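Regression test case RT-17, inverse folding.

Input:
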């Protein structure tokens, strides 16, 4: 509502303008400028003023930028000029250094000439000394030859005596070495015999359970052993393999309830003992008996000994049946 009154007031009030005079002296009617028109003109002038202010600021900014660029270019020119002046100064210094070097080179040439002259002089003196040395050596050789003529025969005799003594000494050394080697071998042999005679090898084993079959009897439950390394092979195969040569006692005890049972002892596949456990014609089916075989054998390294049944028969396990082997020498 207030806006409406304002517009109405603006349209109602106005400004009276001066009347311009006509050419013929006639008077032109009065002209009026409304308030709204006045405000519009004022806004246009304010806009023009703002544009002029922006253009002025832009012009000032462009002017500052141009001055900065010109200042930078001038500074670069000044720096380049300073570098050129410095190069000219260094060039002058280099010329001065070159002159100094040239003077030093001339001085070195003079010193080299002096050294070369001294070297030539010393060469002549050295040649003279060599000639004198050769003369002295020749005189010494002549004197030595004259002094060695008389004792030459004695020196030859002494040399022959020395050679004879050296030959005798060499022969004696060889004999002593041979005797030492023989003594060492004898000592080693005696030591081996002592070791072999004092080595302890023994074993007692039993079957771990009862069984009834033919073939090698396995005494796989070792109750005692000494001096035997490969017990595992003996338990698995039933064969005792000699690890230390010597004289051994073998003892085999078998408890069986089979009538007519008998066992053999084999050495490397050759039967060395036959033993019958029991036999009774009146009781052919079953009977219980124990039989023992004891013998002495000379075993060598890797000899094999085992006990076997030629046919199926009962073997009592645990301590009822025993295989014992002892090295006595």
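Golden output:
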């Amino acid at each position: 509502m207030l806006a409406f009154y304002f517009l109405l007031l603006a349209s109602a009030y106005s400004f009276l303008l001066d009347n311009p005079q006509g050419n013929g002296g006639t008077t032109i009617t009065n002209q009026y400028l409304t308030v709204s028109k006045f405000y519009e003109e004022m806004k246009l002038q304010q806009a023009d003023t703002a544009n002029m202010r922006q253009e002025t600021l832009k012009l000032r900014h462009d002017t500052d930028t141009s001055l900065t660029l010109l200042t930078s270019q001038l500074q670069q020119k000044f720096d380049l000029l300073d570098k050129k002046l410095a190069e000219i100064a260094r060039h002058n210094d280099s010329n001065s250094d070159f002159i100094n070097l040239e003077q030093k080179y001339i001085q070195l040439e003079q010193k080299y000439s002096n050294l070369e002259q001294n070297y030539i002089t010393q060469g002549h003196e050295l040649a003279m000394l060599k000639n004198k040395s050769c003369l002295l050596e020749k005189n010494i050789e002549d004197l030595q030859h004259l002094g060695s003529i008389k004792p030459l025969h004695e020196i030859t005799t002494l040399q022959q005596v020395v050679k004879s003594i050296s030959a005798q000494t060499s022969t004696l050394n060889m004999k002593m070495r041979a005797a030492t080697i023989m003594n060492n071998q004898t000592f080693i042999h005696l030591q081996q015999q002592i070791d072999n005679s004092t080595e302890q090898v023994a074993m007692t084993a039993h079957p771990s359970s009862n069984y009834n079959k033919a073939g090698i009897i396995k005494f796989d439950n070792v109750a005692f052993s000494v001096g035997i390394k490969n017990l595992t092979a003996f338990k698995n195969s039933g064969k005792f393999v000699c690890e230390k040569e010597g004289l051994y006692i073998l003892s085999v005890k078998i408890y069986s309830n089979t009538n007519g049972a008998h066992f053999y002892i084999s050495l490397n596949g050759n039967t060395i003992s036959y033993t019958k456990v029991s036999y009774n014609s009146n009781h052919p089916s079953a009977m219980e008996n124990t039989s023992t075989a004891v013998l002495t054998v000379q075993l060598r390294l890797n000899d094999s000994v085992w006990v076997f049944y030629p046919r199926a028969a009962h073997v009592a396990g645990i301590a009822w049946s025993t295989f014992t082997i002892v090295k006595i020498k």
